[in-house]
Write a structure and sequence with these properties.
By secondary structure, the protein is of the alpha+beta class. It contains eight helices and eleven strands.
Length: 289
């Protein structure tokens, strides 16, 4: 079996160089300089004449590769969840090899929000990026999915029959104009389809400073009418209860990566960020993925 340099012409030159050196007994520093230059030249020759990595070899014409950094990176690079947690100063859920060699992919949660970052093997640099396979360029982005079972519905306002088999979840802000528009489309749907119900989770955004108190008032009353009054810009009374569920909804939304309203979650977990009209929503509901 031939090694990496098995058929490399540099080997023969190196052997000749060794013989020449012995005969000349390493006379003078000029000989040493020549040796250094030739060795460097042979190294460059090896790189350019052989297409395989230094640690690769051939068996019966097939390229093989031994264990170590030139093969599987994890054979000589490690990163534990605890180590990643100490580096990032955040809760780390998982650590795995990224799609690009030389980087770890780290998934975690910080301040109630999910994140994905990349750390180099030297553990000196953090990369905030999203890798896109070349083959996916030009294709529509895959729809984000959220498991509806993760979302408690005990505090949700229900539009339609609670016994309807098809449940659509909406995260709403009472001061969001697009939520108001979507609310009107949802009413059209439940008039036509008695098998569909909407479950509204109140999620006041920081950009609407009055929405937090309004959400509490609406939840204390558990009133769709009160929500519609808010959408119409009517003044709402002060909340009559503590309504801790609003804070829980805010935390949940951040954990799920929901940053705006309205936000729709279909029964199969597909998500629709933003307003959509009734006909389009029904078409999406009927299109299985």
């Amino acid at each position: 079996m031939q090694g990496f340099f098995g058929n490399n012409p540099c080997n023969h030159r190196l052997n000749i160089l060794k013989i020449w050196t012995i005969k000349n007994n390493m006379r003078g520093t000029s000989v040493k300089k020549i040796i250094s230059i030739l060795i460097l030249a042979c190294g460059a020759c090896a790189v350019f004449l052989n297409p395989y990595p230094v640690r690769a070899f051939q068996v019966n014409g097939q390229v093989q590769q031994g264990a170590g950094c030139g093969a599987e990176c994890i054979s000589c690079h490690t990163l534990t969840t605890e180590e990643a947690k100490n580096i990032l100063k955040a809760d780390v859920m998982s650590v795995k090899m990224s799609p690009v060699k030389g980087l770890w992919e780290i998934n975690g949660v910080q301040e109630g929000k999910n994140f994905t970052v990349y750390l180099d093997f030297a553990k000196k640099y953090i990369l905030l990026a999203r890798f896109i396979p070349v083959g996916d360029i030009g294709k529509p982005a895959p729809a984000k999915k959220i498991d509806p079972s993760q979302i408690p519905l005990g505090d949700a306002l229900v539009m339609g029959s609670p016994n309807a088999p098809i449940k659509i979840i909406i995260f709403d802000d009472p001061d969001c104009p697009y939520c108001r528009e979507l609310h009107g489309e949802a009413k059209k749907i439940i008039e036509k389809r008695k098998d569909i119900a909407f479950y509204i989770k109140l999620y006041p955004l920081p950009s609407h400073p009055k929405a937090y108190e309004k959400s509490k008032t609406i939840l204390c009353k558990k009133s769709i009418k009160m929500l519609e009054n808010a959408f119409e810009g009517k003044e709402l009374p002060k909340p009559e209860c503590e309504a801790k569920e609003i804070d829980e909804n805010i935390k949940l939304a951040k954990t799920l990566g929901i940053s705006g309203t309205p936000f729709i979650i279909l029964p199969d977990g597909r998500t629709i960020p933003g307003y959509i009209d009734a006909d389009t929503l029904l078409k999406m509901l009927e299109t299985k993925q």
